[in-house]
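G., the chain you wanted modeled:
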Amino acid sequence: MDASTDLSYSFESTDLSGGKAGMDPFIYQYSIGGFIFLVGLFYAFRQGYIGTQGAGLRNLIVLMLGLAFFAGLQGYLEYSPKETVPPKPYDGGGPQPTDTMGTPLDYGIMIGYFVIILVIGTWFGRKQQTTKDFFFGGQRFSWWLITFSLMATTVGSYSFVKYSKVAFNYGLASSQTYLNDWFWVPLFIFGWLPILYFSRITSIPEYFERRFNRRARRVVTWLLLVYLIGYVGVNLFTMGKALNILLGWEIPLAAMVVATISAIYVTSGGQTSVIMTDLFQGVMLLATGFLLLYLGAEHLGGFEELWENLPEDHRKAFANFNEDSSYNSVGIFWQDAVANSAMFYFLNQGLAMRFMATRSVGDARRAMIGVLLVLMPIAAIVVASGGWVGKSLSNAGALDPQMEGAKAFFISAEFLSQPGVFGLVMAALTAALMSTVDTLLTAVSAIVVNDIYQPAHPEADEKQLLKVARYTAVGVTILGLLLVPVMMMFDSIYAAHGAFTAAVTPPLVIALLFGVFWRRFTTQAAVWTVSGGGLAILASMFFPELVAPFSHGVPPTEIGDGFLEGFKQYKYTRALYGLSVSAFIGVTVTLLTRPEPFEKLRGLVWGTQKDAIRHYKGKDGDETESAWAEIRVQRAGDELVVDGFHNPGARISVALAEELEATIGDLLYVTDGRAWLGGLRSGHVT
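Predicted structure as tokens:
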């Protein structure tokens, strides 16, 4: 039997040929995820980041405590005894189906929210004079500001609507997506992050050219653009669907309104606008999710009653292993925990730009750990709150148990909120739906400018590049709107997002991970991995039976005869198929081709971070920071250019130089002493 119905079953192996499997989802996830984690620990140990004393021991303890926390939490949810309240008959109350929801006061508050976002975005985005400012915010922000901004981006766009539906239908299993990223932490913060930060990489495709060649950069550029623009389409589709439920607007029209507002402040201020608006929106997201939980608990008589009104199978950490093709733990693991999480943190240009906006690599690490260890568990609660509350209310007879899962968030919020409060809740939903769109627009602009326009126009000055970046943001917005009808072919937002990411991400993930962590991986292998893997996945959309051997027994769904109908078939386990085929191509071609000279790889592969630091500083150095010193700035020197990056020159006294252990040519971080500003009034000088 399956773990979602009975704990007293035998442990069986997975049948990759498509037969019935009875694996325990918890054991399956932590066996494979634990292997990824151990590989990361191995690389971190080899580079001296973890050890048995000092900073190495501290890092090891943090990593192991994080893993223990998530394993303990999910294990408790999966296996602990559960007391539930029997369902009550529906009392006929609650909101009745209408074309719109809310009151004029609620709509007024939503409009006011849009205005506030525009003001914040344009105000903080003033004085953007260089592409470094536009894309990376000057690399000056503190870790806590980036942490909140990352949380808003990670939770954003589709999350509330998407996960509320999953939470209503499957319960706490909706949190699986948010509680499985820790497996990647060692590889990311001690492997990829130092290379990304110190190599002064402005885009992910640029890394592929420096690691391999220009052809690899071109292939990755176009596949990344497909991923990012498609992501924009998913987000705009979600926003359109949300406003369709709220206001009765047609989905394309609603998507157009949100796209226009996002494009205005992104084209105005770039990364600084995105970070500051996302900070505001992140606070709104947390407040709204907890407010909805509180109101639901208050209505039912307390949090214990809210919890016990969730059915037993809704209180487990994992859904069925492979029985339900619409949502199953094995498919979610491969699509979300492996392919999409690796893509999101290692290759998503928007996330890379956010980490590059921190004042130091240490702050980038703190931001990553803060997001995953603190804010992501909170986010798992926040985004699913509407679905959990809706299910508890329906079990208690307060809401119709037959209500559509996609509307659970909206119906629960309207039922529990007073006029005005509902408007605030919907404003926060809007925050979630906009906070990923803005990141994606800046990400695509960065790739177009750095990987397409600038290589073809090396003489272009900063003014021209900024103009191209802003025009690109507008163009991508339009392309995203054109993709909305394509996304509407799926039954749910979760299905649309899952099918899309499983189809696009595997070749890029394999190429980057092999490129960073396998020095033998060759240029020819990288090109063949990305292009061959992409073609294999495309073929599986026309011939879904190619994915069947990797489906772990997940039953096929019924599909029509339309073009790309096969896109819906095996929409989650296609990620495992894509990863396997891409890895096979990468290994085979690598073993048949000549390895790259090691001198070419310095600063671009694991274990060569000191070479990357030399590139960053212009001389030897390490990741440590000197002690802080408080001074009054009297005057700045002339602007200097170091490796193509412009920094103001600063003349300091001999005494201060000795206190900072600084020499001529060193980078100094100068900031306003008020820590709560988060680095807004700060910058680097030479």
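The two ends are 65 Å apart (CA to CA).

Shout if anything looks off.
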